[in-house]
Write a structure and sequence with these properties.
The structure is a homotrimer. By secondary structure, chain A is α/β, with parallel strands linked by helices. Chain A is 31% helix and 23% strand. The first copy, chain A, has 11 helices and 16 strands. In chain A, helix 10 crosses helix 11. The first copy, chain A, starts with 8 loop residues before the first strand and ends with a strand. Chains in contact: A-B, A-C, B-C.
Chain lengths: 377, 377, 377
């Protein structure tokens, strides 16, 4: 699988640290973050000192369990709160990690919402973080709601939702869909950390000016005050793989706070209490707006390029002149007419005009109906 | 005429609203804004309620008469102050609009100041706003003064001043001069709202980097603190037509406050009281500076491109070295020499150096005289 | 010598102004700035008024002697403090300038530190300012220390240090090394005013985006807070000659305060008291960092461009995942892998990543060792 070998499949049934009284002082059944992800099986009695060498804590946040993994080095360990760690005052502990590592499968899920063409928009969310809410139950949830919403409408593009473990899952998918990825994927979004109340952050694809990048700039610029557009960097979520130079797919990353961007990140503090329904709702609305722009984008030619056409005689322009409140739709028509020279798509025009894509699309439709616009070849 | 049909010619002789006592409570002879522009003729007695359906006011500025027109929908109406409107308390009024609509001509005026070549600079001002001062008696006045000033000097370009009604007039001119516009027009300026005391605003041509755009940036940047350079947008004055994609002429718009940019815009408040002689004077000076840069622009080659030439032996450089107040003319010569590689015009060099165009032009002349510069082919 | 003739060689042995009592009231032996540079010989008795026509002072800084020269106009003069000038109250003075002007040579020094290739980095410092410390004993000193440091290490480039009088010396060098300059010089730095405590200023080469320009931006941006990057201008030090359009060499100017940028500039106040050892040391360190980036730059190809390679199995990636303190070296490897597509050099990648060049170079070396990178052709 490219440069990678899928590691053995890991299953975990139980894990605990017991004190001399036989009480579980750390218990996997209480929180599944308590086990270092991918821990090999272990059972035995250890001195407190030896045990602590296998423990991970967050001294600065003594109430939180850290999220730690060791996929590629065989070891075992526990993640616990600093308070739990400090309470390991007995000389010895019984320790058990009841896990198995062996042949298995790398699972990922796909949900395909067919559109009029086989050109694809891919939407990808990582599913490998146990019990973490913003990172990334929120992304999974948003992807599901978007899939549901797109099922109800007719779309130009086929939407492929990919739910896979981070890194290895995206690499597996790309490995198994290499030709398809290069030939069919027109646009894409990674969804992550979309449930908290931070302003939006859109991280551009490696290309920086792909239609999805321009659509995201437009939507967040007009509809989500305080949003940030960041250039691509080769660290973060699975854009690392989709935007590797051999693929260089036009896939951006749609987030609110983003990786490392909030104190609860990668700890037991990233739980449902961090999510807000209205924040998830805004994420849903703005992601749909980006899709709306991608769906409705197109490049047209003004059939009447010498001076403005007379919109009024076609019922497209206000009858009373001199007003200072020219309607947005009239402005949108003037923008579309002036810049429909074959070199600007509707997303480009909306960005220039700083008008919502829907207004530009509606203007283009009115002008197409009036014969003042034709599709550019 | 491209997509347009010139509408019937409108003449207005008189108009009034009379009360039961036969007194004119609204009187066209008092202010010609009182009639909705292009009103069809009407005579009759109406209930106050029916009359008010034909009235336009500005509730937020109860002392001002709005400027309203209806060129392309046949109707009649009155524009009045909110106070006049509120005083229409009698049950009925006699109403008269003594206008005619019929075959006629669309007039526009041109004033051509010939230059050494048939390459043209067009200067355009709209003339369709009755009784409005800043928008656009100021533009008409400035155009006239510029024409007068250019008559007295020898110019490279032929200057064509166009005085025409907004939109329809510019469209008519372009329709009747289509080939000439495309072949001869090298630069152009729309003049509007140039008599108030707002800082200058220059709106770029659709090209964005035409010589007139760069000349205006240079002049306003150096000589008019607080000026704003705005990108093209397909709304405003007749740049809408000159910069339509079929023409895409290098025509910018030279303004102070601009359309909609002051509270009196399109009302009876836009009267001579709004204009200031020194503001008109500054507009004149800066417009001439833009023309000066366009006239004097050129691209040259440094005949001595390896190291600096020795300016001192030619009397072009200060004899005493070590001073910190190097003369601007020496700096200008160094800029012209270094960047006269065929790829930069004098306007480009002035922009880089942030030196007045006159200083750069004087430096180039001195260097040409000394044989250190030749015209690039 | 291009457009220039080397003037006669000037030697100065003594100079003074004596009062009636025969006392030297201005004495070249006390400060060599007291003579107008390149003064022709003169001896005689003058009225105070006639003498003062030959005197240069700084009324705003009455304690400082100005630095003035007259290379290309034969004259004589004295530079004195305003206090000395004001004390010239006797009716007559005896004056002597014991100088000679005659055939001679224009000397400049070169120090060449050979590297693995004959491609050259030139480092140039002007040596014509008598007794001035920051401008430019500091540049001379820094050049010497850099030459010494480079002698001790193996370099790719041959480093040529040029010590020459400003303007005429650089012109002489370029005149005598014209082909070499065009064929061999890959990068270059002018060093001047590097001993004061002002933040760094790097003035770009005329090209603006030469590797040395990008290396300087990287180094000063990351390692020298408050630094300024200025675009090229055809005034300043000998970049005026190296960057004349016929040569257009990739030579920038590395300074702290720069010409005219401090009150003591070109006066007797620019003495050793203005220099600070730690400031010179920082200049040394950052100049070396620029050379380090130029030496280590290169363009590579990721041999595994589809998705990330598995760094962990090669020991290049941390074993425990989930941490938020990803090591800089891992980040650097991800940047190098993603952007090593043949279109970005390591300096480009370091600028994108905003990581020290050394980290990017170390990452590239690790990836080359692992076979994950090859040199681009």
């Amino acid at each position: 699988m490219f440069d990678w070998t899928i590691p053995d499949e890991w299953s975990i049934r139980d894990a605990w640290i017991k004190n001399a009284a036989g009480e579980r002082v750390v218990d996997f059944r209480e929180h599944n973050l308590h086990v270092l992800g991918y821990s090999e099986p272990f059972q035995g009695r250890l001195s407190a000192e030896d045990l602590k060498a296998h423990c991970y804590t967050l001294p600065d946040h003594p109430d939180r369990i850290p999220y730690r993994t060791s996929y590629y080095k065989r070891q075992w360990g526990f993640c616990l709160t600093q308070h739990q760690y400090d309470a390991l005052t007995e000389p010895e502990y019984d320790v058990c990690i009841d896990s198995t590592l062996g042949p298995g499968v790398l699972d990922y899920a796909q949900c395909v919402v067919p559109g009029a063409t086989s050109d694809e928009v891919i939407v990808s969310a990582h599913v490998c973080h146990p019990s973490l809410a913003n990172d990334n139950l929120s992304g999974i949830t948003l992807a599901m709601q978007l899939a549901r919403a797109l099922t109800d409408i007719e779309t130009r593009y086929t939407y492929r939702f990919i739910f896979a473990p981070g890194t290895i899952g995206a690499i597996a998918w790309l490995s198994e869909h290499q030709a398809q990825a290069k030939e069919r994927v027109r646009h894409g979004l990674i969804l992550a950390c979309v449930g908290d109340t931070a302003p939006f952050t859109y991280k551009q694809s490696r290309r920086g000016d792909a239609p999805v990048d321009r659509a995201a700039s437009l939507v967040l610029g007009l509809h989500a005050e305080g949003s940030t557009i960041k250039p691509f960097s080769p660290y973060g979520y699975d854009e690392r793989q989709y935007c590797s130079p051999g693929f260089d797919l036009p896939v951006g990353c749609f987030m609110r706070s983003g990786p490392g961007g909030y104190p609860e990140y990668h700890t037991s503090g990233d739980n449902l209490g961090l999510l807000r329904p209205h924040a998830l709702g805004e994420s849903f609305t703005n992601a749909l707006r980006i899709f709306e722009a991608l769906e409705g984008d197109g490049t047209y030619l003004n059939t009447n390029p010498h001076c403005e056409p007379q919109l009024g005689k076609r019922g497209l322009y206000s009858a009373v002149g001199g007003r200072t409140d020219t309607r947005a739709v009239e402005m949108a028509m003037l923008w579309v007419l002036n810049y429909s020279d074959g070199g600007n798509s509707l997303i480009d025009i909306a960005l220039r005009a700083q008008l919502p894509f829907a207004a530009i699309r509606a203007a283009a439709d009115a002008l197409l109906d009036a014969g003042l616009l034709v599709a550019a070849e």
